[in-house]
Amino acid sequence: MSLQHIAFIMDGNGRWAKKHGKPRFLGHEAGMNKIEEVCNWCKEYNIKYGSFFAFSKENWNRPKNEVDFIFSLIERYYQDQINKLMSNKIRFIHIGDKSTLPTKTNHILNELENITKENDTFNLLFFFNYSSREEINNAAIYFAQELSKKNIKDEDGNLTFSSFLLTANFPDPDLLIRTSGEMRISNFLLYQIAYTELYFEPQLWPEYTKSHFVKAIESFYKRDRRFGKIKE
Ligand code: IPE
Ligand code: IPE
Ligand code: MG
Question: How many angstroms separate the CA atoms of 137 and 165, rounded?
Fold first, then answer.
């Protein structure tokens, strides 16, 4: 059974800060730092793709100073991240709605993508300003446009719906891990997780450790993925 793609819902930054008597923004800082560690663990386990949910479109509804701080983290870490991504041979891919991001943020995310595009040991899919339902709605529109252009009903099966999703070039996650004990998906990869194994970790994201990660992987390998078939 292969494990090539893990998706992470990095939840619990705010509660971690509260627990330690710190302001919420320090939770986001600690949470962002954790991504690098987790990428290294994935590489050790020969996992090729890691999807990290960092900011949802619904997160715009938080206080402006919290949102502003999250955006400032991207700017602050940019130079440092380029060097680390290059030395660890990690390819960075931004997934999310670029049209409603500030120009500066888009510029940074594009730069990270361009500079790292030849790296091939690990693919870091960074979900920022992402909404799965919006992605599906947009894919439906693009799909319909293509079909009408070609004036076909896709009878020959050349066009597949998933090729219009933002994740078209990447495999579906094998395992999805959400930290902080919440057992919900919160508008993340709704289409792509049809057969993904789900794992809910009580630990808060900033205090997520390698042993929690290894426990999730061990749990994955004990599961019986049947994909609708009968066990051999
Ligand atoms: C996840 O941590 C990060 C974002 C959603 C941006 P939270 O900020 O949601 O942390 P909690 O859920 O309040 O503890
Ligand atoms: C999900 O966490 C989004 C990210 C981790 C970026 P939230 O904290 O926003 O989710 P809810 O509101 O608890 O469902
Ligand atoms: Mg949360």
Answer: 9
Contact by Cβ (8 Å): 205, 10: yes
Measured distance CA(17)–CA(39) in Å, rounded: 23
Using a 10 angstrom Cβ sphere, with 0-12 exposed, 13-18 middle and 19 or more buried, the burial of residue 117 is exposed
209 contacts: CB under 8 Å, gap ≥ 6:
203
Q: Delimit the domains of the chain by residue range.
A: 5-131+172-222
On whether the 5-131+172-222 domain is CATH 3.40.50.360, my answer is: no
Handedness of CA 119, 123, 126, 127 (dihedral sign): positive
Q: Does the CB atom of residue 182 touch ligand 2 within 6 A?
A: yes
What is the whole-number distance in angstroms between the Cα of residue 148 and the centre of ligand 2? 37
Q: What is the pLDDT of residues 40-68, one digit of tens each?
A: 999 999 999 999 999 999 999 999 999 99
Tokens 């529109």, located at residue? 141
- pTM of the predicted structure, to 2 decimals: 0.97
Indicate whether residue 189 lines ligand 2 (CB < 6 A): no
pLDDT in tens, 12-42: 999 999 999 999 999 999 999 999 999 999 9
